[in-house]
């Protein structure tokens, strides 16, 4: 685990950490109460290139000066990309003129990141332009490029990002130790697993998720597949959503969240 520097910006404390290959994280406490989220943190991952910095997700509540801090630290323009449209990933979006987000989650972002907006042209009211990121598109930072892979499941518009040159995967909330499957809408589980099997074939030396401030085990995609296939049918564990009180089936492996092999997967029980 990398050491970090604590910084205070407009009454919000966050920790800046440096990782291999010009990658940084900005960590902030999640906005929800600890008992609702297990005390998880929120990450913004920064990938520094020769011409731009890619900021992957933005924290909530909004931190005034968030964009300015990144621009001044690296002396480069910032590209804002959301791995999906949930509220805890889009909090500082309004500080940017353009935000990259998979089209499938535009209405989720327009609904405040909690419920999908049903209003016609709701996206136009976000206050910034939203640009789609199709499956397989490359995001260029000058001397480096990341590829977008769609991995719906947590939401319809979930994506992960992969940099082949450094064998680095940013898993968002789709490749992680804690996965809340089907939180906003339903994707057949086999579709998620099929796409995840393709990602598992990539060479991965570094893997980062949005709610852990350390690198995960690089074989995490395969572990997720194995854990689901071995345990989902026989598990009797359940989890109740604090948001809408839905009941989920749960696979909980391990009790200590500091353990790298800890795994927590929930999926709507009625499906």
Task: Please tell me about this protein's structure.
This protein has 271 residues and is α/β, with parallel strands linked by helices. The chain contains five helices and 17 strands. It has a single domain, classed as Ribonuclease Z/Hydroxyacylglutathione hydrolase-like (Metallo-beta-lactamase, Chain A). The chain has an eight-stranded mixed sheet with strand order 1-2-3-4-5-6-7-8, covered by helices on one side. Helices cover 15% and strands 31% of the residues.
* Strands in their spatial order, largest beta sheet: 1-2-3-4-5-6-7-8
- The counted number of beta strands is 17
Mean pLDDT: 92
Q: Spell out the CATH superfamily.
A: Ribonuclease Z/Hydroxyacylglutathione hydrolase-like
Instruction: Compute the separation of the termini in Å.
Output: 38 Å
CATH topology: Metallo-beta-lactamase, Chain A
Task: Provide the low-confidence segments as ranges.
Answer: 32-39
């Amino acid at each position: 685990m990398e050491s970090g520097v604590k910084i205070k910006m407009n009454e919000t404390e966050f920790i800046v950490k440096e990782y291999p290959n010009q990658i940084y994280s900005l960590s902030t406490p999640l906005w929800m109460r600890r008992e609702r989220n297990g005390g998880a943190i929120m990450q913004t991952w920064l990938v520094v290139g020769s011409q731009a910095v890619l900021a992957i997700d933005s924290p909530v509540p909004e931190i005034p000066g968030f964009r300015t801090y990144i621009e001044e630290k690296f002396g480069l323009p910032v590209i804002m990309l959301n791995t999906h449209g949930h509220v805890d990933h889009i909090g500082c979006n309004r500080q940017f003129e353009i935000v990259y987000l998979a089209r499938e989650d535009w209405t989720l972002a327009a609904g405040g990141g909690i419920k999908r907006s049903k209003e016609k042209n709701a996206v136009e009211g976000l206050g910034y332009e939203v640009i789609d990121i199709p499956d397989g598109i490359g995001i260029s930072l000058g001397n480096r490029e990341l590829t977008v892979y769609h991995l719906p499941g947590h939401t319809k518009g979930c994506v992960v990002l992969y940099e082949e040159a450094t064998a680095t995967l940013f898993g968002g909330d789709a490749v992680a130790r804690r996965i809340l499957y089907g939180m906003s809408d339903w994707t057949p589980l086999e579709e998620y697993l099929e796409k995840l099997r393709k990602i598992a074939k990539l060479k991965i030396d570094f893997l980062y998720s949005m709610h852990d401030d350390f690198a995960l085990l690089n074989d995490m995609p395969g572990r997720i597949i194995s854990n689901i296939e071995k345990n989902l049918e026989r598990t009797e564990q359940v989890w109740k959503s604090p948001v809408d009180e839905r009941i989920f089936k749960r696979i909980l492996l391990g009790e200590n969240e500091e353990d790298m092999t800890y795994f927590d997967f929930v999926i709507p029980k009625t499906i």
